[in-house]
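Q: Got a minute? One more chain.
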Amino acid sequence: MFSMYVLDIPENLGIVEVSNEDSSLRVDRVGPYFRISIGSREYNPEISIDRRESGCRHAVWYSCVAGLANAQIIQHDKDALRVVAR
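A: Always. Here it is, folded:
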């Protein structure tokens, strides 16, 4: 299993909301962070979040990832954030 961590601050809530709407992802809390991970093995093993859907401004978008567990970022540009298993 692999995960991405996002700090629980108001600026990051759009990312969490978009992740909650994706049925292939699971969002839970670990201390002051949200952990976003794949919810089921039957889905594409990738965390993919569209920046425009999240409503994040560029400065927040590029600083939203607080950490990764067994994962690597394969795309983090003005359009999307994509994370896969390492």
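A: The longest helix spans residues 13-21.
Q: Perfect, thanks.
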